[in-house]
Write a structure and sequence with these properties.
single chain; about 80 residues; mainly alpha; 4 helices; elongated
Amino acid sequence: MSKWISENPEALISLQLEFLRSGSRIVYAPTFTANRVKLSEFGLADRLFELNSILVGESKTAIKRFKEENPSAPDCF
């Protein structure tokens, strides 16, 4: 999942934007299975830091876009 999201970031950003638009003010980066043990099952353990950085970065991008669309919205995390 982590690799797919890293290759298709708009899917994650769009989903998180929908959560924000519906009233959520907290966005979680989908890093639950982006750990060395799970990634090693797919030969991706060496990309641990890279994939987690991408997932967190895309989540921050969603928040940034939301704030640009809604400058008066409360802070999002």
